[in-house]
Amino acid sequence: MHRRAFLRFFSVGTAAAVSAQLFYRETFGNLDVAFEDTDIEARQIYNSIRLMKSKAPDSREFLQAFTSVGAVRESEQEVILSQTETPSRFSYLSKMRNYESPHEKDLYLPKAQYPVLISTFKRLSRVQQLVGHGNFNVLGFDEMQQIGRRYSAVGRFSRQENDFFESLFLANAKDYGFLGEKVTTDLTSLISRKNTKKIGKTGHFLYRGSSEALYKKLKADVGETITLTSGIRSVVKQTHLFIAKTIQSEGNLSKASRSLAPPGHSYHGVGDFDVGKVGYGSKNFTEAFSSTDEFKKLVDLGYVSIRYPRNNMLGVRYEPWHIKVV
Ligand SMILES: [Zn+2]
Predict the structure, then answer these.
(1) Whole-number Cα distances in Å, 314 to 66, 75, 248, 320
(2) d(CA 238, CA 243)
(3) CA-CA distance, 108 to 58, in Å (whole number)?
(4) What separation in Å is there between the alpha carbon of 135 and the centre of ligand 1?
(5) I need a labelling partner for 36 at 20 to 30 A (CA). Which of 17, 139, 234, 288 fits?
(6) Looking at residue 283, which CATH number applies to its domain?
(7) What percent of the chain has pLDDT over 90?
(8) What's 252's DSSP letter?
(9) Residue 297 belongs to a domain
(10) How far is the CA of 40 from the centre of ligand 1 (A)?
């Protein structure tokens, strides 16, 4: 990003936010960090971090395949499934129903990487605090680096943190058991601000064009009680969420990927979005959402297509709140 555009982006509002947030507490004092599309609470993360520092992990050999970025096409999924250790549809579906439990052949981050996992998470959390939750959703990798260099409240991303960040992006998600496609292949891709629209009161952005149009139509049809709960997410945002989920899963990357697409694999990067019932909080990201009148209306109106339906073969749990646009 050019310096001028960068400065415009971090304008008056940001300056105020920066001064208010300069005293970010190393103790993870702020517990109202939002983790969309997950049921993570900041307090759990904090507890998990303490646990990971004290407990030996249930670790296995892992992450050899960081160089491959091959995406899985739908036609390949059956083949891949037939080669996995849980080849039957029954055992696969049972694993996905129990997505929160550890399973045989789950892949874990090696314990040696726990410190960098946690320090990267904390630095990203400080970036989010500094730029604000809304801006963080669309923040690019290079912008993230600039913020680290520029603001001592964040601090420069270390070589190890950058390598770790990149390795998560380049990892072969199939190794986790995640079979969705890689939809963003450039780590440093920038989300052009002029192609996005900030949706009032939500703190989220949508791409202008089909995403914004579908959201408007959906809101007009369903009513004021439905709202956008997560829109565009940059690679930076998705990585922060995935790291949070990995910490919550105590290093189990497979478990993390069953409920959150690994970096580069989220359709939030290219147009999908999440909706929820106003005032329903984190329950919007649980199956409880599918019992709401809002969800029933979405289905009855018939134009909503869900990215991860029940019993999908993509290695992702049922997500009735996630609306497919692309
Ligand atoms: Zn989603």
Answers:
(1) 20, 11, 22, 15
(2) 9
(3) 8
(4) 18
(5) 17
(6) 3.30.1380.10
(7) 52
(8) B
(9) yes
(10) 14
